[in-house]
Design goal:
426 residues, OB fold (Dihydrolipoamide Acetyltransferase, E2P), ten-stranded antiparallel β-sheet, 17 helices, 36% helix, elongated
Length: 426
């Protein structure tokens, strides 16, 4: 038996045969893992033996794995004062090295476990990216198998994501719309001279005004008051600096009002109180961590095909309670033209997409989505019937009036359904 293997065998009670995978790896990886705390080292070896975690697929990845493991062994990566920096590093990442789990992730999870086992919700809410990462790694099958074998040292930790503080998400302020919005607020006029709203009720009001009926003035006042209650900030808030979204909200719904983004499912479970629902944690590249999303896909897409899936998400719908769990987005799925039983598939972004990457409609590239769709105006419901997949399986919006085709894409290419043609998207 080689000398180094005998050293590890003495330091670790795991039978030598469980170390053959480790011994086959570069000496630098062996040396780094040998420095870990005995419990963490056992966890790493067990996960490696179970399969599904790697030592690095390229020389660059292997070097990064060694660097992370050494930092964990030294304790520098998991000190309380380092959590803020670690959180910042993990915001854009699912794993610490590349896009697949490695022994570095197992080591980091193991070292963080004792800290996270003592945190209260308000404390782990303060580090959303680390919390999201920790919860994902502890749920990976080979890691869970190894951790359960060492229980209670690495028991599963449950997080209360449902009651996490509400997150305010606002779209960037369109510069072009700021100037017109300011002019709308400019001079205050008597009620009888106030121009009619640009909403669907504008024509009746104009006709009533032309006829000189006194009721028109009352109707105008009433509708203006209603607009203010529905959040028409651009006309009601002082200063007018954030009037862009309400200005776009008025008038005919257009597809660019919908906020589409690339998402990555980092965890998926069945809803505890609904047989047909999944509860997913989806990374949309936000500093606040993944969003909880509830999808009715249990009977159409196996859970194994949902795990680690890349998709397109609708991110500006109003959050909705789904059997006791609040959903903060919707996955965009293609439904066969022959009905749900004939097949449902998730719309896929181009290869090498990143979480949070913008998805837009061709010829609407310069438009900015609304921060949140007003459910009373049924913008998504109005636009959705035009969503479909073309003969090329490309996702698109077809204008029902002009029949013009606007493909759904990122900067790197079109978004596709795996097999379905002529499918509806919702």
């Amino acid at each position: 038996m080689p000398i180094f293997a005998r050293v590890i065998q003495r330091a670790c009670p795991t039978p030598y045969r469980s170390l053959h995978r480790l011994y086959a790896r570069p000496m630098s990886a062996q040396a780094a893992i040998a420095k870990l705390h005995p419990d963490v080292r056992e966890l790493v070896l067990g996960a490696a033996k179970a399969g599904g975690v790697d030592f690095g697929k390229s020389e660059k990845d292997k070097a990064e794995v060694v660097e992370w493991v050494e930092n964990v062994a030294q304790g520098s990566a998991v000190k309380a004062e380092s959590l803020k920096d670690l959180d910042a590093k993990l915001v854009p990442r699912t794993y610490v090295v590349s896009n697949y789990p490695t022994v570095a992730d197992v080591a980091l999870y193991g070292a963080l476990h004792s800290t996270f086992s003592q945190l209260q919700p308000t404390q782990y809410y303060a580090h959303p990216a680390v919390t999201r990462y920790f919860d994902h790694i502890q749920s990976i099958p080979p890691v869970r198998k190894s951790a359960d074998a060492l229980s209670p040292a690495f028991s599963h930790i449950a997080f209360d994501f449902t009651n996490a503080p509400a997150i305010e998400r606002k779209a960037p302020e369109p510069k072009k719309a700021a100037k017109p919005a300011q002019s709308e607020q400019a001079p205050a006029k008597p009620a009888k001279e106030t121009p009619a709203s640009s909403s669907d009720a504008s024509n009746p009001k104009a006709e009533a005004k032309d006829a000189g009926e006194g009721k028109a003035q009352k109707k105008e006042k009433k509708e203006k008051k209603k607009e203010g209650a529905e959040g028409a900030d651009g006309k009601k808030k002082a200063g007018g600096g954030k009037a862009a979204a309400p200005a776009e909200d008025a008038g005919e719904p257009i597809p660019s009002m919908v906020d589409l983004r690339v998402g990555h499912i980092i965890d998926v479970k069945k809803h505890p109180d609904a047989d047909g629902l999944y509860v997913e944690q989806i990374d949309f590249g936000e500093e606040t961590g993944p969003r909880t999303v509830v999808s009715g896909l249990v009977h159409y897409i196996p859970i194994e095909q949902m795990q680690d899936k890349w998709l397109v998400g609708v991110c500006n719908l109003k959050p909705a309670n789904m059997r006791g769990i609040k959903s903060f987005a919707m996955v965009l799925a293609a439904t066969s033209k022959d009905g749900k039983e004939a097949g449902i598939e998730l719309v896929q972004p181009p290869a090498n997409s990143k979480p949070g990457e913008r998805v837009y409609f061709e010829e609407f590239e310069d438009k900015t989505p609304l921060s949140q769709l007003n459910p009373k105006k049924k913008i998504f419901e109005t636009i959705q019937p035009g969503f479909t997949t073309l003969e090329t399986r490309e996702a698109a919006w077809v204008n029902p009036a002009t029949k013009s085709v606007h493909r759904i894409r990122t900067k790197d290419g079109q978004c596709l359904a795996p097999t379905l043609v002529g499918a509806s998207l919702s």
